[in-house]
Design a protein that fits this description.
The complex is a heterodimer.
Chain A: H1 2-33, H2 40-58, H3 61-84, H4 93-114, E1 130-133, E2 136-139, H5 140-162, H6 164-174, H7 176-181, H8 186-209, H9 218-233, H10 238-258, H11 263-277
Antiparallel strand pairs in A: 1-2
Helix pairs in contact in A: 1-5, 1-8, 1-9, 1-10, 2-3, 2-4, 2-8, 2-9, 3-8, 5-6, 9-10, 9-11, 10-11
Chain B: H1 2-14, H2 31-54, H3 56-79, H4 89-106, H5 111-133, H6 138-157, H7 160-165, E1 184-185, E2 188-189, H8 193-216, H9 218-228, H10 230-236, H11 240-266, H12 276-289, H13 295-311, H14 317-331, H15 335-345, H16 350-366
Antiparallel strand pairs in B: 1-2
Helix pairs in contact in B: 1-8, 2-3, 2-8, 3-8, 3-11, 3-12, 3-13, 4-5, 4-6, 4-11, 5-6, 5-11, 8-9, 9-10, 9-11, 12-13, 12-15, 13-14, 13-15
Classes of the chains: A mainly alpha, B mainly alpha.
Chain lengths: 289, 367
């Protein structure tokens, strides 16, 4: 019992941290540009597929982990500049139509290029096998994912809180016009944040692509989990997204112990409960407006 | 066919033909628009037997287009018209569909019993979701409705009611409910696809007429006021939450009706009907068609279904459909309805408008 509980805790933390990579970009993009980005899951999926491409053609997981996010970052830049930029200032609802369209396109492109069967990115030999902590045995790869994503999230957190770029980002989110008036090119900040979010999503895609399966439905699958996290954490709050991601990761892991079929029910009940009690989410700055 | 004739007569009075109407600007649908709606319905009614004779497959698509037009209409009534951004309309659609499937299986195939039951179930589910959600505003309302709809999805998918009641199956779980027969009512056997099409057409028209009527009524005006300025309406003394709940429930009823029409036609009720992607697709239909106009979203819904059906043969259908969404949202911000209206009002300058839209786009991309 203790054993499976410990195992579930580790698994939950690992899942939570990788989901945090997806949710962080989603919440930053929403916080800054008011864009509900349905294409975020598609970028995550692109990350996994480009990881697969690089991993299989160059035979290196590490190169895949490095190159795939860069490629997806470029795609993210193209999406932001060519399609989102003309829409700023319009009713944010239209971003839904736009990003939904992009998400469908990406799904179609993936099916065209890679087919619709399930695949898996080969994990490096270095990370195969498992380690044991007392009674619990745990795959090395999952441990690696946990450590890497925690380090990444920690670094970003510090960067957002402390660095000049982080301050610029928060300022742009807080008052776009003022930052613009101060002589900063806010458009570039927007593009930068979107690219940054795309890169994070792609990293998560590569990491999970080697432990979960890579298939054309994965984009729409992850986006809803990421949304739940962003909403529970508070729309636009980075800190909130991280805490909520860990919470959801643990709920999924523990839920799998109690009633595997009903984990989704737990998650959405939790989401509804949070919204009813505190509509702005756990760490949301403002009340519902 | 007698009932169909009667319904058509009712319809004429319902949409107020021959009545004097107020200034056109205030109406959801001008008298010209009403005429256009009737003409479209007439053309469809004439076209259907032809389609049946030459290519029965067309009748299939048309019926599905009509059902989704109705569903998009029901959503627009709250989303575009009352400003309630529901992201959970799949729940009412699916609930209505499952209600119909269960009623047909266990009780009767009489449409006069089953369809009202579907509507009632839609109303009940909407009232339940709405009761928890109407206090939240804007995007938070959207997220709450999404959460509740997904709960319903999981409940249906895992067949939770059967587990709780300790019976073998109720919703059929993952597989859904198969082999649902078509309706019959007052001696008419709707097992003919053509008659089923007419049944759908008439019900969609009646629903449209009713919702336009409601939208133009004092109740509709109040909803418009709430959309524009909720606090102000509250200060004037309106019980804003009650109005929102009522509007949401009415909308849910029509979404349930759409489900009740869809499931017997497809002969299967599966959990996918309640999945959030249906809700998302509905919002897309709305924005594509032009929200808040009631008729625009119907066009949007019909168009999306049409494209999905027609493009299904192409391997690249998702890419094409996605591109259509992207192009429309960038170049036709007010959707199909907006584009049609601007072409109608100013047909000569259409080319100029297109050029201007392209120039604007390039300018904005360059920053």
């Amino acid at each position: 019992m203790i054993e499976s509980l410990l195992r579930a805790t580790l698994l939950g933390l690992q899942l939570g941290m990788t989901l945090a990579l997806v949710a962080a970009g989603l919440t930053l993009i929403f916080g800054m540009m008011d864009v509900i980005n349905f294409a975020h899951g598609a970028l995550y999926m692109f990350g996994a597929y480009f990881g697969l491409l690089v991993g299989e053609s160059l035979g290196s997981f590490w190169l895949a982990l490095l190159l795939a996010p860069l490629i997806v970052g470029l795609i993210g830049a193209a999406i932001e500049i060519l399609s989102l930029r003309p829409l700023y200032g319009r009713n944010p609802l239209y971003h839904i139509l736009l990003t939904f369209g992009i998400a469908i396109m990406v799904q179609g492109i993936v099916v065209q290029i890679w087919g619709s069967q399930s695949r898996r990115i080969p994990a490096p030999d270095l990370l195969t096998g498992s380690v044991s902590f007392g009674p619990v045995t745990y795959p090395v790869y999952w441990l690696f994912v946990l450590v890497l994503s925690t380090v990444l999230i920690g670094t970003i957190w510090i960067a957002i809180e402390r660095s000049d770029l982080g301050i610029l980002m928060r300022a742009s989110a807080h008052d776009t016009e003022m930052v613009d008036a101060l002589g900063v090119d806010v458009k570039k900040v927007f593009t930068g944040v979107f690219v940054f979010g795309s890169v994070l999503a792609a990293v998560a895609g590569v990491l999970l692509g080697a432990s979960r399966s890579v298939h054309p439905g994965m984009g729409f699958g992850v986006i809803i989990e990421a949304f739940v996290i962003v909403v529970i954490g508070g729309l636009g709050s980075f800190k909130g997204a991280i805490y909520a991601a860990l919470l959801i990761g643990l709920v999924i892991a523990y839920g799998a112990l109690i009633a595997p079929a009903l984990t989704d029910l737990f998650i959405f009940t939790l989401m509804a409960a949070v919204l009813i009690v505190k509509p702005s989410g756990l760490f949301g700055a403002t009340e519902a407006a | 066919m007698k009932s169909v004739m009667n319904l058509a007569a009712d319809l004429k009075t319902a949409i107020g033909i021959g009545e004097t109407t107020g200034p056109i600007g205030e109406q959801v649908l001008s008298s010209q628009g009403r005429l256009a709606a009737l003409v479209v319905a007439g053309v469809l009614a004439v076209f259907a037997p032809v389609a049946q004779a030459f290519e029965p497959f067309w009748l299939n698509i048309l019926t599905r287009m009509l059902v989704f037009a109705l569903l998009a209409l029901s959503l627009d009534f709250v989303f575009g018209y009352a400003g309630l951004l529901s992201f959970g309309h799949a729940a009412m659609f699916g609930a209505g569909g499952y209600a119909a499937a269960l009623a047909i299986r266990e009780v009767t195939t009489n449409a006069l019993v089953v369809l009202p039951a579907s509507m009632l179930v839609g109303v009940a589910v909407a009232a339940f979701i709405g009761w928890f959600s109407v206090r939240a505003k804007g995007i938070y309302f959207a997220m709450l409705t999404l959460a509740f709809a997904q709960m319903f999805y999981v409940i249906v998918f895992t067949d939770l009611p059967a587990t709780v009641l300790d019976v073998e199956t109720i919703t059929g779980g993952d597989d859904g409910l198969f082999g649902i027969p078509l309706y019959e009512a007052i001696g008419i056997d709707f097992t003919s696809r053509l008659l089923y099409f007419y049944l759908t057409l008439v019900l969609v028209l009646v629903s449209f007429a009713v919702l336009v009527r409601v939208a133009n009524s004092p109740f509709g005006r109040t909803m418009q006021g709430i959309r524009e300025n909720e606090e102000r309406m509250q200060f004037i003394g309106y019980d804003v939450q009650r109005y929102k709940l009522l509007a949401f429930s009415i909308s849910g009823g029509f979404a349930g009706l759409a489900g009740g029409l869809y499931v017997p036609f497809q002969s299967v009720a599966q959990p996918g009907l309640l999945h959030w992607t249906i809700s998302g697709e509905l919002v897309v239909m709305l924005l594509l068609g032009g929200m808040g106009t009631l008729w625009g979203p119907m066009l949007g819904g019909a168009l999306v279904i049409y494209l999905e059906e027609r493009l299904a043969g192409f391997a690249t259908w998702e890419i094409i459909l996605g591109s259509v969404f992207v192009v429309v949202v960038i170049f036709a911000p007010r959707g199909l309805a907006g584009t049609l209206i601007s072409i109608k009002n100013d047909p000569r300058n259409t080319i100029t408008h297109v050029k201007q839209a392209l120039r604007n786009y390039v300018e904005k991309v360059r920053g």
